[in-house]
Please model this.
Amino acid sequence: MPTTQTEEFIQVKVSVVALRSLETPDMDPRIVMMSTFPPTQCGIATFAQSLSGAMTSAGSAVDVVQLAQSPTFMRPDAVVHQHRSSADISRTSQVLNSYDVIVLQHEFGIYGGDDGIELLDMLSLVRVPVITVIHTVLKTPTLRQRFIIQGLIAASTVLVTMTNIARKNLIAHYEVAPEMVQVIPHGSPDLRRNDEAVSFTSGPRLLTWGLISRGKGIEWGIQALAKLSDIDPKVQYVVAGRTHPNVVALEGERYRESLMQLASDLGVSDQLHLVNEYLDDSALAQLIASASIFLLPYDSRDQVTSGVLVEAMVAGGPVIATRFPHAIEVLGRGAGVLVSHQSADEIAEAVRHIHHNPVQAEHMRTLTCELSVDYLWPAVGQSYLELAGSISDKQSSPPALAIA
Model:
């Protein structure tokens, strides 16, 4: 039977990995990451790209097995294999097993099957240590979701959460040994501001960024604008980021259009600025330098990790956020202002308080910078390399999964 181009590609990549093993027997462990990856637009893909880049910069090249629904012919150099469906499970496991350590990014829905259950079929074939990064820890999962998480626990050598509250929830609600769960914070590019870069407007400028979708709570920020007419010059609210591609696929730009309509109805259209484009680190840094307050008005009451919150902390705040778990953990000591969910009144009062108390606002900026030193990607990448190095010499494989 003739060999397909895909098979030839995999054979070449596996051969390259084997050669690397022969050439560098005493070098650092060979690491592969499995995740969605750009050009896919999602938070996990962006995280994986940043983390693999940070680990590579720290001294150990990281290859990537990319989760992709269709072939991507313009692949990033780091991608050695694309996993597209259950038909690829055998081939993908062969690629993964050719490395010393696997760093697995987990989120429900990015793998095949209901809630991504096909991942367990693949892990049953894996025979090398696995570091699983848990992006979502559900307190009340469905039976299938609980089964998947318990399967991940059984197949993993180490589990990584990005906050202490996520670790506590995982230990409290699932069957896992506490010593198996480590905390490594979500990373951020260096968005720290300096005196030359900051260009605050005379009136407050609020900034929310990231992929836009329902649940981000942006409507509450817009409603807060209408309650701040006493501040002169007017408060400006910048919302930067494209609509999440999954949202566009389902409903187009209805949510973004509803935000513009809300601003029009409230008479604050001139104060709302929707930046519908992808922002690289440089563009985001420039936008951050022009903002005086970062606003995270998320509706979620269970969000244990927020990459945008980490970026806001690194940038120096001050931050106004709803009381989701990650915000409570990092802002609860005075580094920002916590407000109730879906409360335009509390957002408006927080903006007014920060605007009229510049000394306290500066204290918040100083405190957030002090707290966020370990969030920079080089530090995070080094932490993952040290973790991978500590487990790479463990030859015992995780127990095989019994898939019901």
